[in-house]
Design a protein that fits this description.
Strand content: 15-25%
Keywords: Hydrolase
CATH architecture: 3-Layer(aba) Sandwich
InterPro entries: AB_hydrolase_3 (IPR013094), AB_hydrolase_fold (IPR029058), GDXG_lipolytic_enzyme (IPR050300)
GO molecular function: hydrolase activity
Oligomer: single chain
Strand order of the largest sheet: 1-2-4-3-5-6-7-8
Protein name: Esterase
Helix content: 25-40%
CATH class: Alpha Beta
Structural class: alpha/beta
Number of domains: 1
Shape: globular
Order of helices and strands: HHEEEHEHHEHEHEHEH
Pfam family, one: Abhydrolase_3
Length: 320
């Protein structure tokens, strides 16, 4: 179905600039190179913000490799330990790095007066599940153990992520609950990738989702890369890989979830939000009309408004 007429006019130049590509093993190297270039540009632009950017390293252990972290903190002097925001980047689980949204992370650090920490977690297909989720959990535990050195309050850690990073964040919330690990104040999930079963045509799925930027073909490649050797859609998929598979969503931190009406992930996001509500989890849901995947990575009014709503939700999550 041609959905260009449904796209917000202010987003059409973005779609002209960033053509939609069905990702595959053959196109992956070029896609990764493209995101690395964008990450470099974003990192350079981040230097204009009144924040301090550092690259830290979590040391390797017998069970975990070394993990590189991007740290973003306000330059102004802190009068008390700051809250921490653990960020998990997008990229379909097979690409991306923390610097990809560095300017947005700078805005979070500045507006929330918090320390943002974003790990460069291992990527599929070289490192399939559970590599990424274990790196995320290792990062969360390391942040908690090193709170005094980092100048943060270990009792005030929030969680955010976009696309695959949003799915990873949702999976991390489940994992730390089940392992009785560090407590999280909230989940800020931005068009999260939650359900491997989306690769199949499901009943009542939106006919207007997934034409632009993130297609069913790319989604199938991503889930196949992440879950290998488990087959996407099979009964053996872990809820920590695909949080929509979790049967118990109780006792999770409050959720702010934002997704565009033209995003492939709209249906799975709506179902997940409803299930969270039914199991007693506080949910705030934003559906952006006329918006496709990664619409917020644009210099548009719709992106500005959406990001402002997320920041407001995170302020409330931190008790600010």
């Amino acid at each position: 179905m041609n959905t260009r007429s449904l796209v917000l006019p202010e987003l059409l130049p973005f779609l002209e600039e960033i053509p939609t590509v069905d990702l595959s093993p053959e196109s992956l190297p070029a896609f990764r190179d493209g995101l690395e270039h964008l990450a470099g540009q974003s990192f350079l632009q981040a230097e204009d913000y009144p924040v301090t950017l550092e690259r830290l390293t979590i040391p390797a252990t017998d069970t975990s490799p070394a993990i590189r972290l991007l740290s973003v903190r306000p330059r102004k002097e802190a009068t008390a330990p700051r809250p921490a925001l653990l960020h998990l980047h997008g990229g379909g689980y097979f690409s991306g790095q923390p610097e990809l949204t560095a300017t947005q992370l700078c805005q979070f650090a500045q507006d929330l007066d918090c320390v943002v920490l974003s790990p460069d977690y291992r990527l599929a297909p070289e490192h399939p599940f559970p590599a990424a989720i274990e790196d995320a959990y290792t990062t969360l535990c390391w942040i908690t153990r090193n709170a005094e050195t980092l100048g943060i309050d270990a009792s005030r850690i929030g969680l955010t992520g976009e696309s695959a990073g949003g799915g990873l964040a949702a999976g991390l919330a489940l994992l730390t609950r089940d392992r009785e690990g560090p407590t999280l104040l909230f989940q800020n999930l931005i068009y999260p990738m939650l359900d491997d079963r989306t690769i199949a045509d499901q009943l009542n799925s939106s006919p207007v989702g997934g034409e632009f930027l993130w297609t069913r073909t790319s989604n199938t490649f991503a889930w196949t890369s992440l879950l290998n050797p488990v087959t996407p859609g099979s009964e053996d998929v872990s809820p920590y890989a695909a949080p929509a598979r979790a049967t118990d969503l109780s006792d999770l931190p409050p959720v702010y979830l934002s997704v565009g009406a033209l995003d492939l992930f709209l249906d799975e996001n709506l179902v997940y939000a409803q299930r969270l509500i039914h199991q007693g989890v506080s949910v705030e849901l934003e559906i952006v009309p006329g918006a496709c995947h990664v619409f917020d990575q644009t210099d548009t009014q719709v992106a500005t408004r959406s990001i402002a709503r997320r920041i407001d939700a995170m302020k409330r999550g931190f008790g600010l």
